[in-house]
Amino acid sequence: MADNEIQIENPINFSDSALQELKRLQSEQTDPSQFLRIGVKGGGCSGLTYVLAFDKKDDKDVVYDISGVMCIIKPSHLVYLDNMVINWEGGLNSRGFTFENPNATANCGCGSSFAV
């Protein structure tokens, strides 16, 4: 695959509310070299936590255009993220991104940590 090639099949999806919020956040980015990084890292009460932040692409990242949001994901993270849906909750009692992950065998109460 060429270094600048964008993958057509997307491993994750955004709800309509998440897509709207991500596009809003993306429009506020001042550095055009930044992509939305979706990934995982060790930590949290269940063992792994989600990564959702704007970041620069590195050599190991694959670029995805997910409903108009340019995303980067490391291929090694796909085993944890495949078929996940990212939602946005904008209410007073619950505000932020939530993750519906079919690969998770356990989730913590806060929803940002999981186990496989």
Description:
The protein has two helices and ten strands, in the order ββαββββαββββ. It has about 120 residues and is mainly β. Strands 1-5-6-3-4-10-9 form a seven-stranded mixed beta sheet. A three-stranded mixed beta sheet has the order 2-7-8. A hairpin with a 5-residue loop joins β3 (about 35-40) and β4. It is globular and about 35 Å long.
Strand content: 35-45%
List SSEs in N-to-C order: EEHEEEEHEEEE
Oligomer: single chain
* Rg computed from alpha carbons, rounded to a whole number of angstroms: 14 Å
Overall outline: globular
**Helix-and-strand structural type:** mainly beta
Enumerate the spans where pLDDT stays under 50 for 5 or more consecutive residues. Answer: none
Give the strand tally: 10
Number of helices: 2
Through-space gap between termini = 29 Å
Brief overview, please?
With 116 residues, the protein is mostly beta strands.
What is the topology?
Layout: E1 6-7, E2 12-14, H1 16-27, E3 34-42, E4 48-56, E5 62-66, E6 69-73, H2 78-81, E7 84-90, E8 95-100, E9 106-107, E10 113-115
Parallel strand pairs: 1-5, 2-7, 3-6
Antiparallel strand pairs: 3-4, 4-10, 5-6, 7-8, 9-10
Which key terms come to mind for this protein?
three-stranded mixed beta sheet, single chain, 116 residues, seven-stranded mixed beta sheet, 14% helix, mainly beta, 10 strands
